[in-house]
Design a protein that fits this description.
CATH superfamily of the largest domain in chain A: Rieske [2Fe-2S] iron-sulphur domain
Oligomer: heterodimer
Number of strands of chain B: 0
CATH topology of the largest domain in chain A: Rieske Iron-sulfur Protein
Number of helices of chain B: 2
Radius of gyration of chain B: 18 Å
Number of helices of chain A: 2
Shape of chain A: elongated
Shape of chain B: elongated
Largest interface: A-B, 31 and 40 residues
CATH architecture of the largest domain in chain A: 3-layer Sandwich
Number of strands of chain A: 10
Structural class of chain A: alpha+beta
Radius of gyration of chain A: 34 Å
Largest sheet of chain A: 6 strands, antiparallel
Number of domains of chain A: 2
Helix content of chain A: 10-25%
Largest sheet of chain B: none
Order of helices and strands of chain B: HH
Strand order of the largest sheet of chain A: 1-10-9-4-3-2
Strand content of chain A: 25-35%
Strand content of chain B: under 5%
Distance between the termini of chain A: 86 Å
Chain lengths: 178, 78
């Protein structure tokens, strides 16, 4: 049964509520064409803003290199060289107490030192004397002992290398190699 | 076709260009971060310059969009 309030206004003559033709066009006066036009224009503005932010981030990365810890050139005494036997290693902190590092004397007698933080997921790497390589026990990442390059497992970046200097039979860490 | 109809088609084309340059900028930023962490600093400034050039292209296209929009408004008010 039809509501008596609207019974006098046939639907074909207009809106059953107000009686006007095309009243929805008054409530929403924007055509589809205009809607597409505005949405695309706004999207171009939004993406250009994103583009500006990305350019700023790129410059921040370019200038951020001076804040990277690897540029530290602090000199720190590590201890007497004779304490480090062939195939042996020692742990130390450089340049801060929160930065663990590992110094290794290879079977050839060469001294090398690296950050002990694995470049995969930051586990502490250890020296595998038998295989003469640096190993991350968490995910079996393997690094070359002479250069610190990743040779197996998930790490894709090499271990940061610490510069070592031998003065009067004493070891000093003097900075990071680029 | 109305001016707004033409504008919609034009803006769609510009949107594709802008989106492509933004994707390139994202790739440049990813590359820069990788280089920064690897300690390879020589590529950082060229990547930032390339990103700025892409931003300039986008800004030029946006300027064109604003100019076209002003024309379209004038056409609607006539």
């Amino acid at each position: 049964m039809m509501n008596s309030e609207f019974a006098a206004i046939p639907e074909k003559d207009g809106c059953v509520a107000c009686g006007q033709k095309d009243c929805t066009q008054q409530d929403f006066p924007i055509e589809w064409e205009g809607d597409h036009y505005v949405s695309r224009r706004e999207m171009v503005k939004f993406l250009t803003l994103g583009s500006a932010l990305l350019a700023v981030a790129n410059w921040a990365a370019a200038f951020g290199k001076r804040f990277v810890r690897r540029n530290s050139s602090e000199v720190k005494l590590l201890g007497p060289a004779k304490d480090l036997e062939r195939d042996g290693y020692m742990l130390f902190r450089y340049p801060t107490a929160e930065s663990p590092c590992i110094a290794i004397r290879t079977p050839e007698g060469k001294f090398v030192a690296y950050s002990q933080v694995c470049t995969h997921l930051s586990c502490a790497v250890v020296y595998d004397k038998g295989e003469n390589q640096i190993v991350c026990p968490c995910h079996r990442g393997v690094f070359d002992v002479n250069q610190g390059r990743p040779v197996a497992g998930p790490p894709t970046r090499g271990l940061p290398k610490v510069k070592l200097e031998l003065r009067d039979d004493q070891f000093y860490a003097t900075g990071w190699e680029a | 076709m109305s001016v707004r109809g033409q504008g919609t088609t034009l803006f769609s084309a510009i949107l594709v260009l802008v989106a492509t340059t933004v994707v390139l900028q994202l790739w440049l930023l990813t590359f820069s971060m990788e280089a920064l962490l690897r300690g390879n600093y020589s590529t950082l400034v060229p990547a930032a310059i390339a990103s700025t050039v892409l931003l300039a292209i986008n800004a030029g296209l946006l300027r064109y969009v604003f100019g076209f929009d002003r024309e379209a408004q004038r056409d609607l008010n006539r």
